[in-house]
Amino acid sequence: MRVLVTEPIAEQGLAILREVAEVDLRRLTPAELLEAIPAYDALIVRSETRVTAEVLRRGTRLKVVGRAGVGVDNIDVATATELGIAVVNVPGGNTISAAEHTFALMLALVRNLPQAMAALQAGRWERQAFQGVELHGKTLGIIGLGRIGYEVAVRARAFGMRVLAYDPYVSPARAEAIGARLVDLPELLRESDIVTIHAAKTPETARLIGAREIEMMKPGARIINCARGGMVDEEALYVALRTGRLAGAALDVFSTEPVTDHPLFRLPNVVVTPHLAASTREAQEFSGVQIARQVARVLRGELVPEAVNLPPVPPDAAGEVVRYLPLAEALGAFLGQAFAFPAGEVEVHYQGPLAETAVQLLTHTVLKGFLARRTEEPVNYINAPQVARRLGIGVREARQTVGGGAPDSRITVRLRGAAPGVRSVTGTLTPEGRVRLLEVNGLPLDLVPGRYQVVTRHHDRPGMLGQFGTILGAAGVNIAGLALGRERRAGEAVAVFLVDEPPAPEVLARLAGVDGVLEARLVVLPLGEEHP
């Protein structure tokens, strides 16, 4: 496998990647990237490389795109998801670095440090010209109280500042825990002496601070942006700074990067840096190592629950969710192969303690198993819902925290469609963590499946199992186990034969030809073993 790294990451990260793949470190123009990407299985970028839909579609071998940093706004995540390409990043890698850089800009801004240094270097001693203001007693308005905003608030309190925060996704208790008060955006703008932005860039926040918002700000206030370029309207900001409506601005990010010539750069009340918030030795090392580990896991075929385009799994639930992934995939694969049934909807029903946690990733995994042999299109944890949608298959989740008095977690997958009836399978895990089938089509049975099994749907008649055994034995197919479920005597029944090797199609045809047999099909489960 090959990994393309288009912007520098820590050497320790490169060493991790070289354990699983050939690594090329190359700075490329957009045109060169389009030409090179078909040869690579993974792409690692920072903020400068734009991973467009065209790049992703040209990358026919791509399994993962990694961003060695916080945001993924330079990656077309929607197209990556459609194509089943994992997108991973390092959301906490630059938290301290960005918080400290915010304060570096804040202090430089209020104490006129760059201007004073430039004057002194030019041979001028101008103490009175660069009189500053103190942070102590001032009101700091923080837009976005996530990881970085939280750390900025902690440091602001240490400086003796009053802290206001605007974040519609944060509880008042989180803000109060660090001595901040949650307010709406207009109130924050009206009351703050300094406004600093730490919100994620989304379509809603792309122009978060425009002319209207600047007009709301306290006359003589200052603004800092270490988040993402374009979140402050640079033309409106220029006008406000030049007319004195605002006292100053400190910017680390810009709407177009890289940029070396900008009207803002020529104003005396502006401090600028070239996107340096994450540029500390510690942050670079952490981000490089973490992104390398995630990319390497994807290349080894492992699931990375932290991927941006996978359903989020809370850290305290990740272990339990990952433990049930083999069951979810096995149940989906079983229904996808056991019955010739035109599914219009897949319903995944969670029962017991598992129903109380985040299960969307498990639902994706059911779809992955179900669709794997029903379409030629590659299906994985990431694009399974999109593939199902394209095939006209609906998806529904249901939960039951207490069911039947059973303390164990169970998953039931049901197929509904144009054909009459419902096809279903229910399973759980054994104490050792193995997949265990409990019901098929509502008929109780008990089986720890293997890699290969023959599933029959038939009428319950004397001698049926004997005929099945005779046909399989004559074909040299060894039966390693059997589970039978039936509705009632002489009613519909389901048999699941564990076999050591897959029977030939003609053998399945002979089974299907037995009088009273409705279906006889081979089921291959992604369990990596032939039988228990």
How do the helices and strands line up, and which of them pair or pack?
Layout: E1 2-5, H1 11-18, E2 22-25, H2 30-36, E3 42-45, H3 53-58, E4 64-67, H4 77-83, E5 86-89, H5 95-110, H6 113-121, E6 139-143, H7 147-158, E7 162-166, H8 172-176, E8 180-182, H9 185-191, E9 194-197, H10 211-216, E10 222-225, H11 234-242, E11 248-251, E12 270-272, H12 281-299, H13 315-323, H14 325-338, E13 343-351, H15 360-371, H16 384-390, E14 394-400, E15 410-417, E16 422-429, E17 435-440, E18 443-447, E19 452-459, H17 464-474, E20 479-486, E21 492-499, H18 505-512, E22 517-524
Parallel strand pairs: 1-2, 1-3, 3-4, 4-5, 6-7, 6-9, 7-8, 9-10, 10-11, 11-12, 13-14
Antiparallel strand pairs: 13-15, 15-16, 16-17, 17-18, 19-21, 19-22, 20-21
Model description:
This protein has helices at 11-18, 30-36, 53-58, 77-83, 95-110, 113-121, 147-158, 172-176, 185-191, 211-216, 234-242, 281-299, 315-323, 325-338, 360-371, 384-390, 464-474, 505-512; strands spanning 2-5, 22-25, 42-45, 64-67, 86-89, 139-143, 162-166, 180-182, 194-197, 222-225, 248-251, 270-272, 343-351, 394-400, 410-417, 422-429, 435-440, 443-447, 452-459, 479-486, 492-499, 517-524. It is an alpha/beta fold. The chain is elongated and about 105 Å long. Helix 5 (95-110) crosses helix 7 (147-158). Helices cover 32% and strands 23% of the residues. It has 4 domains: 2-92 and 282-299, Rossmann fold, CATH 3.40.50; 95-272, NAD(P)-binding Rossmann-like Domain (Rossmann fold), CATH 3.40.50; 311-441, 2-Layer Sandwich (60s Ribosomal Protein L30, Chain: A), CATH 3.30.1330; 450-532, Alpha-Beta Plaits. The strands form 4 sheets. The chain has a 7-stranded parallel beta sheet with strand order 8-7-6-9-10-11-12, with helices on both faces. A 6-stranded mixed beta sheet has the order 14-13-15-16-17-18, covered by helices on one side. Strands 2-1-3-4-5 form a 5-stranded parallel beta sheet, sandwiched between helices. The chain is built from 18 helices and 22 strands. The protein starts with a strand and ends in an 8-residue tail after the last strand.
